[in-house]
Amino acid sequence: MRSADNIATIAAKPEGDGDIAAAHRVLNYAGEAIRALNDSIDGAFTRAVEIVLAAKGRVIVSGMGKSGHIGRKIAATLASTGTPAHFLHPAEASHGDLGALVPGDVLLMISWRGETAELSDLVTYAKRFHIPLIGMAANPDSSLMQAADVKLLLPKSREACPMGLAPTTSTTLMLVLGDALAVALMERRGFSADQYRELHPGGSLGRALIRVSDLMHTGDEIPLAAETDLMQQVLIVMAARRFGCVGITNEQGGLIGIITDGDLSRHMSRDLLDKTAGQVMTRTPKIATPNQLAAEALAFMNDNKITRLFVLDPQDRGGRPAGILHIHDCLRAGIA
Q1: pLDDT digit string, tens, across residues 98-112
Q2: Buried b vs exposed e over 11-41: b needs ≥16 C-beta within 10 Å?
Q3: Residue 9 pLDDT > 50, yes or no?
Q4: What structural domains does the chain harbor?
């Protein structure tokens, strides 16, 4: 077992400097290449966006080797941001999976040099059935780019591998350009946070986009009483609804106050039951809105040391309660 002194000695060896130099080289090469890509973006990118937007089918992404791995990620990003997409392995396509590509689709093919042999059957098939082909490669004279209807040209750059062979900088460029395409399509489609949540119902992404309207209690579940009601009636409502509070409304049904356990303690006396709700309530209660993120409402409750919020729709000028949200509703939904 190595002692702490031995570990410190190993960490201080000159080899560590080489590791850091390698990391800097990878990052510097990637940064230079991305800047070159940024400078080279032109009308071809817009044409690619427009072809995808006009398509009635999906974006079929294909690539071989490391380009294929990047293609899978691009397809996943497109699909999760409002552009139906699917990855098709070029070798599998040549053995029956070409049926996954149909008229109405758009084919996005990725290859650094643009001469990957396994892509040829897909290119031929796309041309035969008049399927738009978007090519992404670094060689404008390659077979892929010559066949492409839209050419997304990647700037020639140095691989960070010491031998200049392993795809490093090149795959970074492909990934970045794929992300740029997905984001541009999101903006052109007007893809909203609600749509994003519908495609990400599980995990932290889905929970982060849950709104108050998704969790609030509505209708007869809302504990309400009129300001003229006697406290004996208010206590019955409070006990029946089990929120530990009652919202107090005016003649028009607008929320004007709230009665909580704390209000009961402050007004505890022999004549409490003979008082009206308006005499006991706390005015201008803290509220939430239906479109507010539930995480924001939870933070507001924590900051104010309260456990429930009445929900008012800003469109309702009368201020009538649309619902009530309890802190436990947020916790049960996994919002923290």
Answers
A1: 989 999 999 999 999
A2: eeeeeeeeeeeeeebbeebbeebbeebeeee
A3: no
A4: 16-191 (3.40.50.10490), 212-332 (3.10.580.10)
